[in-house]
Structures are given as C-alpha cells and as structure tokens.
Amino acid sequence: MSATTGSARTRRSGSVEGRQRVRDGATSAIMHLVLAVVAIIVIYPLVWVVGSSFGPGGGLANATPIPENATFDNYVHLFTQTNYGRWYLNSLYVATINMAGSVALSALCGWVFARIRFRGRKASMLGILILQMFPSFLTAIAVYMLFLNFGLLDSLTGLALVSIAAALPYNTWLMKGFTDNLPASLDEAAALDGAGRLTIFRKIVLPLMRPMLTFVAITSFTAPWMDFILPRLLLQSSGKQTVALGLFQMITDQYSNDFTTFAAGAVALALPITILYIVLQRHLVTGAMAGAEKG
Amino acid sequence: MTTIETTEHPVPAPRRAPRGPGRTGPGLPALAPGLASALVWGAGQLLNRQAGKAAFFFTFFAGMVVGEIATGNYYAGMEFTARLNGGFFIRGLWGLITLGTQPREMTMTGLTEGDNSIVLMANGLIALLTLALLAVIWIWSIRDAARYRAERNAGRRAETSSAYFKRLWESAFAYIALSPGLVLLVFMSVLPVLFGILVAFTNYNRDNLPPKNLVSWVGTDNFATLFAVPSWTETFAGILVWTVVWAVVATVTTYAAGMLLAVMLASRRVRFPRVWRSVFLLPWAVPAIVSALVFRSMFNGQFGPVSQWLVDIGLTDERVYWFTDPTSPNLARAVALLVNLWLGFPFFMALVGGVLANIPDSYYEAARIDGAGPLQQFRYITLPIVQRTVTPLIILSFVHNFNNFGVIYFLTEGGPDNVDYRFAGSTDLLVTWLFKLTLDNRLYNIGAVMSLVIFVIVGAISVLNLNRTKAIREL
Asked: Does the CB of B269 have a partner CB in chain A at under 8 Å?
C-alpha cells in the first residue's frame, strides 16, 4: 500500500534532489543497497499480513503476501461471525474515557503544581515522582487481587479508571513541565483584571497548553487499544473483551485454521492507529523528548 | 481531663511575665491549649475562645467516635471482642493484624460464614489510611491551639474563627483542585501498592484462597523461598541474568541501528530521504501487539513462512521450531532480540534525525577546513551532540525493555520450556514470569515479592537518571 504513495513522492522530489551531484558513486550505491534491504525487511511482514487478510485460504500455511483470488470474506467473517465488533466498541469506550479523564485531570493537576505554591507541594511532587517509577503492571496485579475479592472484576469503566490513575503521575509531570515554560505574565495580567483562578486556567492557560494536551490525548487514546496486561487481569467475560485480548485469543486458540481472520482483525486494529501515528509523528517525538527531560 | 490547666499553671511562669501592656489574653502558657486539643479535639481552641474553630475540629473527633460506634456493636453488658463488636476502625485494625481467626466451617446448619482474610486486610488498610488522615487533622488542631496561644501571649491581635477560615479557603484552592486526582490516585494506585507490599509477607496463594481458607502473616518467608530454596533461586537468577542481557542488548541494538539510519538519511548522498524515512517509521506506527503477533505467526515452527522458506532454499533440511524447541533456547532469544530491533529502531531514528537536523552546518564546514574526514566528523561532532540530548531516553528505553512484557509474551509466551525453571520458559523476563506466577499459577505471595524486587531495580535506575536531570532541582 505504501508503494504507490512512495513512487508518487519519488517523482516529485526527484527533480529537486536530482540537481545535487552524486560525488562518490560506489559509496552511494552501497548506502542505497543497505537502505533497500532494510526497507524490504520492514515492509515484508506488513505486506504479508495485509495480503493474508485478503487471502481466500484460512490456514497459516496458505497465507501469502499477494493472494491470487483476493476477497473481503475475512473482514465480513470477522464482523459477522466473531465478537470483533463488540471488542472494537469496548476498546473505543475505554479509550475515550481514558483520553477525556487523563487530559482533564493531568492538565488541572499539572497547572496547579506549576503555578500555585501551597504547603505540601514539594512532598506531593516527590510522591508523584515515586509513583511514576512504579511500573503500572505492578499496581495492576494488586488491583486485580483487590477487585477479585470485592467482586469488582469485569467492568470496562473500572478498567478505564485504573488506566487513568496508572498514567496520571507521568502525565501530570509532563503538564507541569510544560506549564513551567509558559510566561506567567499573562496569568498575572488577568488576575489584575479580576479574573478568578479557574477562569484564568480555562481562558488563558489551557489554550497555551494545547501541544501537550494533544500529546497526552493521543497517547492516552491509543494506549488502551494496545494494552494487554490490565484488561487481561480485570476483564473476564467474552462480551467485555478489548481488541487486543480478542486478537491474542484468536491467534492462540484457532491457530492454524483461522489465520486469515486474525490477519483481517490485525489490519482493522492497526490501520487507524498507524495513520494517526504517521500524521502526528512530530508531536509524538517532541512529546517523548519533553517527558524524558523532565524525568 | 480538665486537671491539665491547673497542673500546668505554675510551670512557665517567667515566660508570660515580661509581656507588654497590650491586651493579651488570659495568661495561659502555649502548652495548655495544645494539650487540651490533644485529648479532646477543639478543646484547646475553646480555651482560646475560638468557638468556630473548636466546633470544626470537634466535628472530626465526634465523627470518628460516632462512626466507630455506629458501624460496630457497642451494647452495654456485652463482652467486647474486636471481631464481633468492633466498628470500622477497631475491626479494621483487628483484621489487618490477625487476618481473621474463624475459617469457614461445615456445621449442622451448613457452611458458616468465615473471615475473608483479603477483604479484612483491604478494609484494615482503608481504616489505617483514614486514621492517618485524621491524625493529620489532630496534629493540625494541636499545633493551631498552641501556636495561636503563643502568638496571643506575644501580643498579636485576636483573629476570629471566620477570618481564619476565610484565609484558609483562599489558600486551599490548590488542595480542592488537586482532590479529584488525589482521590483517584489513593484508591487506584497508593492503596494497591500498599496492599501489594503487605501480600509479600503473607501466604496468600493457591493453597490458601479466601474465603475457603484463612491467610496468615508469614514474615519474610517468601523472600527466603525466593532467595534460599535452590529451585526458586536458580529460576530467579537465570531469569534476572537474561532480563539484564535482554535489556542491554535490546537498547544498544535499537539505538545503534536508529543512529546509523538517521545518519545515512541525513547524508547528501542519499536520494529521496523523506521517502525512506516514512517507510522506516512504519514499525513504530504499527501497534506493537499487532507486529509481535504477526512475527509470532511468521516464525511459527509448523506452518510459518520463515521455516518453509529456509527449507525451500535448502538452507535447513527440516523446519525450525524457533520458539518451541527446548534444545535451542538461545535461538529463541536471538530471534526475540531481532524482532525487538525491528520494532524499536524507528523511534531512535526519528529522535536522532530530529537532533541532527538542528546541528548547524557551520560545525561540519569548520571541521572540513581543519581537514577532518567523515568518520572524525561523526566521532567528534555528531556523536557528542546526539548523546547529550538522547541519553535520558536511552535510560528510559532500558527501563522499558527491562519490563518489555509485550514483545516476549506475544512472541514466545516465554517459551521454549525450560525444565530447570519453576513456571518459566527460557525467554521469560522477570515481568512475564511475574505475570504467569500471578495469573496462571495464583502464587500471589511470590508474585508480590517479585514485584518488590522489580520495583527496587527499576527504582534505582530511575533515581540515578533523575539525579542527572533538572527534575529534582525544580521540585
């Protein structure tokens, strides 16, 4: 699929790049050879799974990157014969709650830590730093034991709440770091004009925080689609699974005889996220940098 | 309780003597209201003639006592036991200490209701956290009573309770704004973390599952099991070594490959760098779970295309069972590392590419004038600049790989089997082992110990990393 867009772009930039003279032919040829090999290694598995998803077969042994009689049967089968549609909606539900909750809470907390001096501020920020070090799956296992004994398992909203809490320290830290770098003079001017604190936050600070809000929104929206440990621990009944769980089950249960359906499911999950990542790649890389610099 | 004032009177007499002619209060020493508040919350404030504040603190005190009585069975004349009569706090603490005393039993009337140790432990933890919060208010009331009296004795003007609360309200905005996040964190992170730590000191596992059995405290037995029972120690040591090797090699290979490609793409000799770059970013953009499961199928021993291809071109005589052949664990490990390289290099490529774009051309021109070759330019200009920006991310990446559940679990599920290991395969990392121990084998106590061990290792690395960054200084 990327081959067609690639050649189109090649032609356009070709005239610009073509003016540059290639000085050392041999070195250049070797470099292009290396790049081509890497490109094939990168693309082949993806083409293979996309091809398989259109293949008529069913078994893993028959899967080919370029099927002879391409059909949409696997996709039809996926959405009519399996619970995939249900899983997709479940994931969408968790992802949406996770995104809304994470953005709202971390923006508010990050701003408070950046702009307001209050007693216990240092202590609570240290606490957040420590909690952030605690890998989320460790809390997940304890949450599982607690939910198990209190009968709270199998709730999608519960899963979303645990996900929000697990990422909250890190997201708050990101937001705090970003707000630190915003000019405080705007806030002060608004305060002199008599604006209340919440008004300042909503009308002045929040619009300026947009790049970081976008980053947290993307990461917290995409995370539940790929997360496995938490849903595996907290969800049990088949109607409450998420896409990641469903796909894993498909490939472990019906291994060799229904591979093409799995391939269709994998493509249906990967396509939207891949497009989102490619389109927003710059945001995501800068966001990750900011996160690392702040610890 | 009221005797305090009389006994306290003669002690610090000299302190109040030299005070000026201003309108000081009745000359009580600062200690007296403090002690009064320590016994009955708000009593000190009452002595200070601040009825509003006194009512405020007394409400918490009364709430605690009433809450305890209302949730318990405090009938006069009944013999008191914490298990049957205790309220939220007393029974909670009792449960936390004993973890229950009555197992479920079969009697003439059917099953009796036994104690559920884990529920008791969790309730006790909640009671303890509530008590800790109340203790903060208690200390606040004592300090407030003593401090206010001292200030009055020093001649400061009296402040009404309502003025105090107004002042408090204005400065409390931060706490109110933080409270939703705080509540979520306490119940979904802090409580589970504390609970997990406690489980490490119990015998909560598949042999002691509440509500059927009682769980009890076992001290450090679980730690002793992991570090002194040979079969466990061997498994732990083997997996720890592999986890460290995995994390180091995975980080180094992805960083080196990403750096190499970024430098190549920045070179003027390469045509259409943006096209190459878009292609190379694909593994990063595709969800890791999907890629890992696809590779799992490709490397499937029986039906996978890789084995088939090797047979077809005549490189191997029979199919290779990549992840299931117990005789070649290192093959599985190597393939897992290669798959991880496929997954991980684009991130570093994008990162290094961004840094390279920001290095001014004049640096390289100056180097060329001085006669530096391409390798020297790379060694003395590119590498140091990139290294400085990317180091924190390399450390983060190491931590991420240390706990890289996804690649291993989706790709190999820890296989191939290892007969020397307890509940683990040859490619299992500490994380996937922990996952199997907890979910598949229900050895919650050993799992909790493992969690602590992982936390200590990861925490130590993170602390080292933090010391390098600005984060701590900016607190």
From this structure: yes
